[in-house]
Write a structure and sequence with these properties.
The chain is an alpha+beta fold. Helix content is 27%, strand content 36%. It has a single domain, classed as Ribosomal Protein L24e, Chain: T, CATH 2.30.170. The strands form 2 sheets. It has a two-stranded antiparallel sheet. Strands 3-4 form a two-stranded antiparallel ribbon. This is Large ribosomal subunit protein bL28.
């Protein structure tokens, strides 16, 4: 299973770690993924999702899963 957010599609970033002597070595930054059960009042069901903490905060702000998908449809259509 890939470490990817189910709603936003966030995944790991790959780049170079650069030392003071300018030596470069590959490094990754992984998203902070949490397993969360999300209740959707429109459909009346609870869904278990792997979400980034940023997506959880946005989901709390918007209110429900249906509103999130409606407002941020550009994220999950890609």
């Amino acid at each position: 299973m890939a470490r990817t957010c189910d709603l936003t599609g966030k995944r790991r970033l790959v780049g170079n770690k650069v030392s003071h002597a300018k030596n470069r070595s590959k490094m990754t930054q992984k998203p902070n993924l949490q397993t969360k059960r999300v209740y959707d009042p429109v459909t009346g069901e609870t869904i278990k999702l792997r979400l980034s903490t940023r997506a959880i905060r946005t989901l709390d702000k918007v209110g429900s899963l249906s509103k999130f998908l409606k407002k941020y449809k550009h994220l999950w259509n890609a």
